[in-house]
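Example 3.2
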Amino acid sequence: MIQRNATTQWTGDLKSGAGSVTLDSSNAGQFPLTWASRSESPDGRTSPEELIAAAHSACFSMQLSGLLSAAGTPPESIDTSAEVSFGPRGDGFAITLIALTVRAKVPGIDPAAFNETALKAKEICPVSAALTGTEITLDAALD
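Structure, written as tokens:
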């Protein structure tokens, strides 16, 4: 079993406090975060939602590449963005939507087969699976 980990250190209350998240497994760095970076302007800080967007776009791209390659149509390039919507819901805040947008160069594939493969990648991507219960949309097209 492969495991990855990150550590967050937080000081103070929610609204005026601050913290940082460290990507321990990769030693890729430490990223500052605040409530304002989640609910207002990032101002050079990250948020859990931005980290989810990064994880989802990376996972989806890798899953799509694997499926396309297995079908004999390896991609030249895949560009995926993930937009995570976060806002009030019920008595608190929630991730309300994740919108994936992918543009790819895939020689030898027709648009219908590409869209079918992209939909399958969205369904079986491990990050998508971990986010079950959150609406995830997909806009997929060939360049």
